[in-house]
Amino acid sequence: MLSQTVEYALRAIVSLANEAPAAQTNVQIAKVTKVPAAYLSKVMASLNRAGLVHSQRGPNGGFTLAKNPEDLSLLEVVNAVDPIRRIETCPLDIASHGTRLCPLHRRMDNAIKTVEQAFANTTLAEVLADSNGSKPLCESANSNLVNLS
């Protein structure tokens, strides 16, 4: 349901939050998140255009979060790279259905709505503070070990 691009963007945002306020280069983020650096560049450009990260060139450059983790919803990250698409009209273009979705497509849209709401109601800070015993990307960019589970 969610694209690989969304997964990569969420990993990158978590990595930046883990290292905040220090800037991270594309190479550092790629290493920690296990995202191909060339693809990550495109993801980071999308996050930058959406105003979720700052980018600075130069020897001390890199990426930093543009928002506090408490103010950044996961939905903002998702929508910056691959927006969730709700089913608003019949995907089969059946004229009699129009915006009145059939039972199948209504249930599919309800499932999409649930995911959208879960991301909208979850901040980056909540993800980082979750105490289930396994932190996302729990090792920093300066470490040799990375835990993605």
From TrEMBL:
<dbReference type="InterPro" id="IPR000944">
    <property type="entry name" value="Tscrpt_reg_Rrf2"/>
</dbReference>
<dbReference type="GO" id="GO:0005829">
    <property type="term" value="C:cytosol"/>
</dbReference>
<dbReference type="InterPro" id="IPR036390">
    <property type="entry name" value="WH_DNA-bd_sf"/>
</dbReference>
<dbReference type="InterPro" id="IPR030489">
    <property type="entry name" value="TR_Rrf2-type_CS"/>
</dbReference>
<protein>
    <submittedName>
        <fullName>HTH-type transcriptional regulator IscR</fullName>
    </submittedName>
</protein>
<dbReference type="InterPro" id="IPR036388">
    <property type="entry name" value="WH-like_DNA-bd_sf"/>
</dbReference>
<dbReference type="Pfam" id="PF02082">
    <property type="entry name" value="Rrf2"/>
</dbReference>
<dbReference type="GO" id="GO:0003700">
    <property type="term" value="F:DNA-binding transcription factor activity"/>
</dbReference>
